[in-house]
Write a structure and sequence with these properties.
The complex is a heterodimer of chains A (about 210) and B (about 325).
Chain A lengths: L18 H9 L4 H6 L6 H8 L1 E3 L3 E7 L2 E7 L5 H8 L18 E4 L2 E4 L12 E3 L12 H9 L8 H14 L5 H7 L10 H14 L1
Parallel strand pairs in A: 2-6
Antiparallel strand pairs in A: 2-3, 4-5, 4-6
Helix pairs in contact in A: 5-8, 6-8
Chain B lengths: L4 E4 L3 H10 L4 E3 L5 H6 L7 E4 L8 E4 L2 E5 L4 H5 L2 H6 L1 H8 L4 H6 L2 H5 L52 H7 L3 E5 L5 E5 H4 L18 E7 L3 H4 L1 E6 L10 E10 L2 E10 L6 E2 L1 H7 L6 H11 L11 H18 L1
Parallel strand pairs in B: 1-3, 2-3
Antiparallel strand pairs in B: 4-5, 5-8, 6-7, 6-8, 9-10, 10-11, 11-12
Helix pairs in contact in B: 5-8, 11-12, 12-13
The chains are: A alpha+beta (about 210), B alpha+beta (about 325).
């Protein structure tokens, strides 16, 4: 059930005229469609040029987040984390270190957990992005969210969205088979309050039910 | 992070062609090293060329060994069945590195090209011969507790490659396939891929400008099957190695027939040790032999004030790793 929001108006944005074709082009895997559509009389050099597409300045990016395609106007340097927080108001995903050292920015891309601070939004187009906002079904919390509440898996709460996203992935990967294994495979998520025993308990409980 | 243009390359030729026209551009795969460095203003590139679409994928058995595409991710390679069976040390080197999130992102090619964690390199306020050639090296007399004791020079004592994978690759004679802007491929042993700092610490590998890492191929041997990677860190997980050892032994009737030894965290590059291997081959697989090999490996060490502990730590790490594979 995905809905497509209409792209924002590129008013006042330095969008280059050929953007329309480039945008749709980049959404196709690696531009294969573009090659297939190239007329047969196009020479090898032109084919090669058409095969690599460049984005410069502010352009329209489409990101599929929690089942919905959203459009933002952003530069290529915008990380996925900043796209979520600053462009889409999805502030559940936290910015801790912004260097891939703390895990607060953990989201799922195509079902795998990653640090959203170390990837560019422009690179994640066409992928399924899940954030902490996408876990609950309406008012029904995800079992990992319930377990964090039950086991008091946080104090200040800043690392919690990342811990929960990592915990969900950890269980799905089959890496929560023991307390030791859980600690090792949750080690990319730091908690300065030191709620680790409770976090491990929460992840282990969900793993036990899985 | 300064702005840049972004290009999704549809072919290796298009990617290398772009870097030929704009040598200051950089390839991006996982982005975990590159974006970190760009955010810290340690690298600046006017253009990033996304090579994730290139077909450098797959993990397959070939006549030369196990061939791993450069675009494969650390997590997938670390948990691959063939890698686990044939190269325990390589699997362990991958799964003991970074975090699960970073391993899901980082490519094999990018891992091989990750840059030093020397605090002076990573702080643009300090001089650094690697970052600004000729500016000096505060690490020589400064905080050098996590820096190298082997292969150092008066210009640089950084563990230029701070990671784990290339240590295991160097131990087991892995070969990199590189492709240049003419589409021509060449092969380089991982142990020869990295350069000693000498007077030019800014030149870290033999990779030519614009050249791409296509794949890594590891020969299948008895010693690779009987191997391990032992990593010693300041905390029990998610940290770089203070010292590490990738070792493999082929032991028959209690005698060592073949040995492979490489050390991490102590050299200015992944440190293959022919001295240790020579001390092992033909000898009984005993702790006394392993101690002698460890002493041989560290004989040329040049410790500094804060990293002198690494000489003993590396020897103990190596002995413990050898004891484990000897069973």
């Amino acid at each position: 059930m995905s809905t497509f929001s209409s792209p924002d108006t590129p008013e006042g944005q330095p969008v280059r005229p050929e953007d329309g074709t480039r945008r749709s082009f980049m959404k196709q895997a690696g531009g294969l469609l573009g090659l297939a559509l190239a007329p047969p009389f196009v020479g090898p050099a032109e084919r090669l040029a058409a095969y690599s597409k460049t984005v410069e300045g502010v352009t329209s990016l489409q990101l599929k987040i929690n089942g919905t395609v959203r459009s933002i106007q952003a530069e290529p340097r915008v990380t996925l984390l900043d796209a979520l927080r600053e462009y889409l108001d999805l502030t559940g995903t936290k910015k801790g270190c912004d260097h891939g050292q703390c895990g607060a920015c953990t989201v799922h891309v195509d079902g795998r957990r990653i640090n959203s601070c170390l990837t560019l939004a422009v690179m994640q187009q066409g992928k399924e992005i899940t954030t902490i906002e996408g876990l609950a079904q309406g008012d029904a919390l995800h079992p990992m969210q319930e377990a964090f509440l039950k086991h008091d898996g946080f104090q200040c709460g800043y690392c919690t969205p990342g811990q929960i996203m990592s915990g969900v992935a950890c269980v799905k990967e089959g890496h929560a088979g023991s307390d030791d294994q859980t600690r090792e495979w949750m080690s990319g998520n730091l908690c300065r309050c030191g709620a680790y025993p409770n976090i491990v308990a929460a992840v282990r409980e969900v793993a036990g039910k899985a | 992070m300064n702005n840049f243009s972004y290009t999704q390359a549809g072919s290796a030729k298009a990617a290398t062609g772009l870097l030929k026209d704009k040598p200051q551009a950089a390839y991006i795969a996982g982005g975990t090293t590159l974006l970190d460095l760009m955010k810290a203003n340690l690298e600046e590139h006017p253009q990033l060329v996304d090579i994730n679409t290139l077909p450098f994928k797959g993990i397959e058995q070939t006549k030369d060994g196990l061939r791993i595409g450069a675009m494969e991710r650390m997590s997938d390679v670390g948990e691959n069945k063939l890698v686990l069976e044939q190269f325990p040390a390589i699997s362990e080197s991958l799964l003991l590195a970074a975090s699960p999130q970073l391993r899901n992102m980082a490519s094999i090619g990018g891992n091989i090209l990750q840059r030093t964690r020397c605090g002076y390199f990573r702080d643009a306020a300090f001089p650094c011969n690697k970052r600004v050639p000729g500016s000096g090296c505060p690490a020589l007399t400064g905080d050098n507790h996590n820096l190298a004791v082997l292969g150092t020079s008066e210009s640089c004592i950084a563990t230029a490659y701070p990671g784990d994978l290339s240590v295991a690759l160097a131990a087991f004679d892995a070969v990199l396939t590189l492709e240049n802007q003419k589409g021509k491929q060449r092969q380089v042993l991982v142990k020869d891929f990295y350069l000693l700092p000498g007077k030019t610490p800014q030149k870290e590998t033999v990779l030519e400008p614009g050249e791409l890492i296509v794949a890594v191929t590891i020969p299948m041997t008895a010693q690779a099957r009987r191997s391990t990677y032992l990593k010693v860190r300041e905390r029990s997980s998610y940290a770089y190695a203070l010292a590490s050892a990738a070792v493999g032994l082929d032991v028959q009737g209690g005698t060592i027939r073949a040995a492979r030894v490489a050390l991490g965290g102590v050299g200015t590059k992944p440190w293959r040790s022919p001295e240790a291997e020579k001390a092992l081959v033909g000898q009984p697989a005993t702790e006394a032999t392993f101690r002698a090999a460890a002493a041989a490996a560290m004989r040329g060490a040049q410790p500094r004030k804060e990293n002198a502990f690494k000489v003993e730590l590396a020897q103990n790490t190596l002995v413990q790793a050898l004891m484990k594979v000897a069973g």
